[in-house]
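Fold this: Ribosome-binding ATPase YchF
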Amino acid sequence: MKLGIVGLPNVGKSTLFNAITQAGAESANYPFCTIEPNVGVVAVPDERIEKLAKIYDSKKIVPTSIEFYDIAGLVKGASKGEGLGNKFLAHIREVEAIVHVVRCFENPDVIHVEGTIDPLRDIETVNIELMLSDMELLEKRLQRTQKAAKGDKSLNTEVELIEKSLKILEEGKSIRTLNLTEDENNIMKSLNLLSSKPIIYVANVSEDDVVDKGSNIYVQKVKEFAATEGAEVIVVSAEIEEEISQLAPEERNEFLTDLGLAESGLDKLIKASYRLLGLISFLTAGEPETRAWTIKKGTLAPQAAGKIHSDIERGFIRAEVIAYDDLMAIGGNLATAKEKGLLRIEGKEYEMKDGDVVHFRFNV
Ligand code: GDP
């Protein structure tokens, strides 16, 4: 569940990353820590756990978290080993998704590496390096797979997929623009190509434009481009986010309200990242703590239980589940939930849903 923050120099990556690490580190009772200087761990905002904790009189609230990696060092020519190019690309290979920060703010004091503000050119510069690296990898792989396919016809799908991928890359388009079958998707995952990774574009705008979103012409262009890749765009002002992250939680809301914003850009980014990774949360609630847990969409009850403890997965008997919304609709009263049959007993084949409030029964 790692996301990598990438982008050209001076677009606001470090500023955004600082906001991320400060927002995480500040919550002293959360199990967060900064593991390496370039890793930031942040809480996934979830108002449901706050509300559940009130009902259960919980002593502690533990949100779930995701990790952002600050992958600095991209310059033109990275795929040819310019600058820290190879190291940079290797770091991207290790993350599951990419947060691509593009500069949409004007500021004569902050030099742009290319001299002018042009987010589409910047996106292209970064994406081309990723695509060139993918092409190199695919060309090598194609030779090997073609050879092997002579003796093993089942490899033909892979050969065709590689050829199709090379063609799209030659057209200057990312792998993620390809429509793939399930089979092809599985092969693609094993290839771990950089331009196939899910992506979010972060348009970094000035303070004024965050409030008056329609006013920034660059953002519109980024949105149009992102749409061609089916990608989401989050508009933030990294500078404001950094300021917000230094405030106490009560002050944060006041600050946002003053600006006329419902939510911080960082919170929006975290939520969008969670969706991008195909993640959902189930919840556990009780007096000691109310907690959110991260699972992949499609996870079955025993494996979800395993997130809490491997013993619970091993000795899994059943899950007692109620949807968060159902529980809230009856005022959070579990006794009423039982009477009304809203508390369900689910077995080993149950696929967990986002917002399930769960109690697992297990053999020790
Ligand atoms: P990086 O090289 O991509 O990590 O960029 P930095 O985060 O170091 O930002 C480069 C410069 O741009 C710094 O001087 C920041 O203060 C400034 N900057 C970053 N975000 C914003 C923003 O949202 N608005 C304005 N006006 N300046 C910003």
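Residues 25-35 have pLDDT under 50 and may be disordered. Residues 143 and 159 are 9 Å apart (CA to CA).
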